[in-house]
């Protein structure tokens, strides 16, 4: 595979790992001498769709958060959501790390909208709230949902529930699916392969 930045051949490193609570995962890193690098974590199995809910306070800022590439993370009180897209990456961090990721995105939105006083004000309010939560002065709800069941919050205080198929179908997966043949063509192709 060639580097999208310079065209040279990429270096690929892969490792399988049996992660507690997550199961078998594949960790990949592709890199190039020009500085291009991309890492990702792939979960090796699909499970039932789930939702984890944690009331965040100073006692659980270090609870582990595993977000697969198909996981959605929300903080409903602040209207924040991290949803998967085609370039979505999985990660393992803690609650404080998730809050900091949201802070980085809100800071970026604040810069992009620097000429709109109202949007800057809203961004500043959200940043103040996130900082207060990280400092243990306030509390928010952290929700992690995954239609493939591969994301989690590891804490004794977390509430876990299975999602219905209807709820799971409304979540983004981050997967790009291309339908190249219709159902009849697919069945015909399958029959031909079995012969």
UniProtKB/TrEMBL annotation:
Name listed for the protein in its UniProt record: ZPR1-related zinc finger protein
Keywords of the record: Metal-binding, Zinc, Zinc-finger
Cross-referenced InterPro entries: Znf_ZPR1 (IPR004457), ZPR1 (IPR040141), ZPR1-like_arc (IPR004470), ZPR1_A/B_dom (IPR042451), ZPR1_jr_dom (IPR056180)
Occurrences of domain Zinc finger ZPR1-type (ranges): 1-155
Lineage, highest ranks first: Archaea, Methanobacteriati, Methanobacteriota, Archaeoglobi, Archaeoglobales
Entry similarity comment: Belongs to the ZPR1 family.
Keyword Chaperone set for record: no
GO MF annotations, alphabetized: zinc ion binding
């Amino acid at each position: 595979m060639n580097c999208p930045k310079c065209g040279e051949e990429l270096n690929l490193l892969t490792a399988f790992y049996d992660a507690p609570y997550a199961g078998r995962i594949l960790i990949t890193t592709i890199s190039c001498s020009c500085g291009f690098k991309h890492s990702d974590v792939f979960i090796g199995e699909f499970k039932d769709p789930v939702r984890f809910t944690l009331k965040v306070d100073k006692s659980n800022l270090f609870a582990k958060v595993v977000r697969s590439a198909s996981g959605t993370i929300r903080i409903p009180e602040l209207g924040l959501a991290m949803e998967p897209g085609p370039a979505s990456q999985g990660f393992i961090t803690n609650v404080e790390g998730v809050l900091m990721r949201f802070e980085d995105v809100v800071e970026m939105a604040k810069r992009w909208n620097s000429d709109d006083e109202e949007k800057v004000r809203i961004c500043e309010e959200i940043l103040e709230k996130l900082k207060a939560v990280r400092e243990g002065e306030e509390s928010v709800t952290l929700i992690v949902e995954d239609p493939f069941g591969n994301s989690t919050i590891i804490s004794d205080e977390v509430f876990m529930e299975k999602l219905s198929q209807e709820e799971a179908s409304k979540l983004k997966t981050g997967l790009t699916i291309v339908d190249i043949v219709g159902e009849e063509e697919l069945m015909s192709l399958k029959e031909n392969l079995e012969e």
